[in-house]
Amino acid sequence: MSATNTTQSNDQASRTILLDKVTKHYPGQLKPAVDGLMLEIPAGKIVMLVGPSGCGKTTTLKMINRLIEPTSGRIMLGDEDVTDLDGDKLRRRMGYVIQAGGLFPHMTVAANIAIVPKMLGWSKDAISKRIDELLDLVSLDPALYRDRYPKELSGGQQQRVGVARALAAEPPVLLMDEPFGAVDPITRQRLQDELIRIQEEVQKTIVFVTHDFDEAVKLGDLIVIFGEDGQIVQYDSPERILAQPANDFVADFIGAGAGLKQLTLARVRDVQLADPVTASPGEKGADVLARVQQTNHDYVVITDGRGRPISWLSRRQLSRLDTIDKSKNPDLPLVAEGSTLNDALDAMLASRLGAALVTNRSKALVGMITFDIVMKSINQLRADVQTADDESPVGTNTGSPEVSEVPND
Ligand SMILES: Nc1ncnc2c1ncn2[C@@H]1O[C@H](COP(=O)(O)OP(=O)(O)O)[C@@H](O)[C@H]1O
Ligand SMILES: [Mg+2]
């Protein structure tokens, strides 16, 4: 790639981030917060930074968009040294998402999202169109949410707006600092699933800080594990970190359930789903029962006119029904195609049916996932990890005396 490439260039190489022996020494502090960090963040990937509190994650992120200036070292965005770029311009090319979205409380949702496009001089129409597009992207109905104020939103909704705002001017890079740290576990799971879906659409280079290892495994293409002193202990794919933790520190960090954690790596859409028997409201119970009896299934899924599951009946329930009605069971075990197998397993356990129904973006039924399917996938994942021999990414701390090995085989 030539050095004359413009700052607007959006090709792969221009979105790779390289931290080259970066050190940050805060005045008055005995030890540097970040010490000789070497790290390459590949374009279009989600790289998770995990590690104990105070190990320098936030400092690292803020040096990338120059909210904090490094004491020494270089940070490259593609072939540009970010310290040569104007800080404001740089930050327009790097969306930044923090806890609770960091929204301005006195501005509406629309005004919050419009901040950067306005600074860039976009036309009113273009901005308005973009706001609707982004709210759709983060699953908030523009008609309902455009004119609300942040305090009129739930924590999860604020976080969604924060993501929309960060994406407003189509930055090639997203920096996220524990964005989902302040929401309840169920909302967090939804926001994570949504980020995965959004990333499939937008393919940004994402640097995501978390102290939650499960979140790192779920979201990351790659994970950097920092030790207490901010040194990199391991930088690798989630699969390989789970299968081959670099040392006891990582093994402890991962915890005992490493086998099950591999389930957070695989998505429902990656496995071969089963086809449930389906029926519609208005059909005769006896007719449907006859249909079910010709299969080895014990249950039938009732779907509405748009293919969305509304209830899930056993043979016994069917035998007692004259006509199938439209009533909706609010407790159906439903999972999205983008959900992890771990989430699917949770849904199955909660349902006690040993299966969950899989729906697409329009909430229509696409299949069924069962325990057997999940078990097969676990075995497959184990086999895959053992034969994997892809290269480890680049990352070390040169400045630290206890430089750790990045595994390489
Ligand atoms: N503005 C600051 N001034 C002085 N020390 C700071 C400042 N910000 C962070 N630190 C120190 O730098 C270290 C790393 O902090 P931080 O990057 O916030 O870690 P993390 O995000 O991993 O919890 C900590 O020891 C912290 O106390
Ligand atoms: Mg932090």
For this entry, give a set of tags.
21% strand, disordered C terminus, 34% helix, binds adenosine-5'-diphosphate, globular, single chain, CBS-domain, Rossmann fold, alpha/beta, 6-stranded mixed beta sheet, binds magnesium ion
Task: Describe the protein.
The protein has 409 residues and is of the alpha/beta class. The chain folds into two domains: 12-264 and 391-397, Rossmann fold (3-Layer(aba) Sandwich), CATH 3.40.50.300; 269-381, CBS-domain (Roll). The chain is built from 15 helices and 17 strands. The strands form four sheets. A six-stranded mixed sheet has the order 6-7-8-3-9-10, with helices on both faces. It has a five-stranded antiparallel sheet with strand order 5-4-1-2-17. Strands 11-12-13 form a three-stranded mixed sheet. The chain is globular. It starts with 16 loop residues before the first strand and ends in a 12-residue tail after the last strand. 39% of the residues are buried. The structure holds adenosine-5'-diphosphate (ADP) and magnesium ion.
Question: In terms of topology, how is this protein built?
Answer:
Layout: E1 17-24, E2 34-41, E3 46-50, H1 57-64, E4 72-77, E5 80-81, H2 87-92, E6 94-97, H3 109-119, H4 124-137, H5 142-145, H6 155-167, E7 173-177, H7 185-202, E8 205-210, H8 213-219, E9 222-226, E10 232-236, H9 238-243, H10 248-254, H11 258-261, E11 277-279, H12 285-293, E12 299-303, E13 309-314, H13 315-319, E14 334-336, H14 341-351, E15 355-359, E16 365-370, H15 371-387, E17 395-397
Helix pairs in contact: 3-4, 3-6, 4-6
